[in-house]
Structure prediction request, 252 residues.
Amino acid sequence: MTNAHAKPTLRVDDVACFFDVSPSWFDRTVMRKPQRTLKAVDGLSFVIPRGTTFSIVGESGCGKSTLARMVVGLYQPTRGTLSFADGSGRDGFVRTQMIFQDPFASLNPRWRVGAIIAEPIKQMALRPSGVETQARVRQLLETVGLSGQDSNRYPHEFSGGQRQRISIARALAAEPEFLVCDEPTSALDVSVQAQILNLLKDLQRELGLTYLFISHNLAAVRHVSDRVAVMYLGRIVEEAATDEVFERPQHP
Ligand SMILES: Nc1ncnc2c1ncn2[C@@H]1O[C@H](COP(=O)(O)OP(=O)(O)OP(=O)(O)O)[C@@H](O)[C@H]1O
Ligand SMILES: [Mg+2]
Prediction:
């Protein structure tokens, strides 16, 4: 599918993310309870070459979403660095977008689909006029397998799979090079999951996107990934090419 020797798009070096989960001030000072730190992510290192898919699997609470949030800049790492390089291999800014698990919660129910997808285009001034923004919205809807006319409808008028397509169109509207997909199909019916995975694969091929893909669904991971890392308690305990992990797994 991809060239594993391409220049890295994302380099993660000894990244950690700790949360202060101490008891309240009263409990600490009066009841003498100690301060507590939760090490959600504790020393991850990996490289994702441009145009490839790197997947993270691991049990609930092992730190996958915390990593995803650091990659898109929602959390700052406590330690370590995340560095992006663009297509020329220069260090710098790479546009990242995130696709969330729940397409029901992540779309504003009061907005028409057209307005939802136009939002990043307007915010980043990617098109010079309203007419061109609308044309771009229609094009994005068709790219994800919906119709241009769907822009006048509201999110609740769509099925779960269609809503995830709308989330993907909104993410693409920002013209990202890098997509973080955090459990993108786990809220969907099994029959719909494969369609969304195939859409993500097609988009990767057409647009040269790089993916960080997080999932509990091992069949999905096998279908889309070039490399797979197994996380356990905030660390990577195994990392290999997809076929290797599935043929000779070191961890259950
Ligand atoms: N903002 C936060 N404040 C405190 N603790 C947090 C915060 N975010 C995550 N955690 C904790 O960090 C740990 C890792 O959480 P995270 O959401 O990254 O796990 P996950 O691997 O995505 O799990 P799941 O598979 O259930 O989505 C958990 O113990 C969680 O409770
Ligand atoms: Mg999670």
Remarks:
- Residues 64-65, 182 surround magnesium ion (ligand 2) (CB under 6 Å).
- The chain has a mean pLDDT of 91.
- Strands lie at 8-20, 37-49, 53-57, 79-84, 96-99, 178-182, 210-214, 227-232, 235-241.
